[in-house]
Amino acid sequence: MAALLAAAAVMLGAFGAHGLKAKLTPDQLQVFETGVKYQFYHALGLFLLGLLLPQHSSNPLLVYAGYAFMVGILLFSGSLYLLANKTLLGIEGWRWLGPVTPLGGLSFIVGWLLLAAGVWRN
Q1: Contact 31, 82 (CB under 8 A)
Q2: 48 and 18 in contact (C-beta within 8 Å)?
Q3: pLDDT at position 56, please?
Q4: Closest-CA residue to 84 (of 29, 37, 38)
Q5: For residue 90, is it left (φ>0), alpha (ψ between -120 and 50) or beta?
Q6: For the CA atoms of the chain, what is the radius of gyration?
Q7: Could you tell me which of 37, 86, 104, 120 has the fewest CB atoms within 10 Å of its CB?
C-alpha cells in the first residue's frame, strides 16, 4: 500500500506540474501540491510501519497508526485535490470539503502519536 500511495503521489505531482499548471491559479496549484506532499510523506510513514510490523506484529498500535495514515491521505490529500480542482470539476457547491481537510490532518497527527506510542511500548 505504501509503494502504491507513493507512486500515486509522484504521478499526481507530475500531473499537477504539467497537466494542471495552465488550468489552475497559482494558489490552487499550491493547494494541490500540498496534498501531494502530505500524501508522499505519509506513504513513507506507511513504509516505515511496514518495516516495523514484522518485529512488532503483536502491537496493534502500529496497525492503527497505518490505518490513521491511510484515512489521513484520503481525507486530507483527497480533499485538497478536490478543492484545488473544484472549478474544473464543477463542484463549487461542495462546501463540506473545507471541513474535511482538518479531519485528515487530525488523522495524520493521531497516526504519528500511535506510531510513537507503539514504538515506545516495545
Answers
A1: no
A2: no
A3: 72
A4: 29
A5: left
A6: 16
A7: 120
> How long is the chain?
122
DSSP label at residue 25: -
Owning domain of residue 40: 2-121
Max alpha carbon distance in the chain (Å)? 50
Structural domain count, the chain: 1
Neighbour tally for 44: CB within 10 Å: 15
pLDDT in tens, the chain (122 residues): 999 999 999 999 999 999 999 999 999 999 999 999 999 999 999 999 999 888 877 789 999 999 999 999 999 999 999 999 999 999 999 999 999 999 999 999 999 999 999 999 87
Give CA–CA dist 103/122, Å, rounded.
29
Record the cell numbers describing residue 70, joined without a space.
Answer: 491511510
